[in-house]
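name: query_chain
kind: protein
chains: 1
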Amino acid sequence: MAAPQAPVLDADGRKSKEISLSESVFAVEIKPHLVHEAVRAELNAQRAGTAATKSRGLVSGGRAKPWRQKGTGRARQGTVRAPHFAGGGHTFAKVPRTFVQKVNRKAQRAALRSALASHVQAGSFAVVDSAAFDAPSTKRARALVEAWGQSVPLVLVATDEEANLVKSFRNLERVAIVGPSELEVGAVVWARSLLVTEAALPLIQGRAG
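structure:
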């Protein structure tokens, strides 16, 4: 089986050449269940888990019996902290918790490979030549995206050293820029198209391989 190919785009969005991709990363069998597990774990990890309410043991007041046991014609009560009183504690009160779900490292890498391979198979993956951006230019970045002809939202993976390219793309609507070490499965799934710089490509292959 031939190694998968990806177009290398110049500053005008035209294909200047093709580059070979790693078969072990971009030509693997897509496993949706692993992608789902990884995305769910990433979203749950972002949840604060700080919601909390007071139980009857935490609300103030209610130390004394509100009325005597007998003779009033009302039901007996021992404290106004009970849940059926206004201002009383909550039944099964919420407590701070963590939503973190553990995903094995091998499964996480397999999910990232599946998400990347799906873009390659769909033709929505390309490599951009960062050397073509010798100065920041949002206009040229917009022209590149339009000439490429892929849908947004778009994720651009670039290194910290490629400042001109990052500054060119960061003002575009529905374009997210991430570093190779920060690329998550959820971002790859969210993106309709994926752009990677030539410098970031081997780093991504190293993470997912």
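note: The first strand starts at residue 5 and ends at 9.
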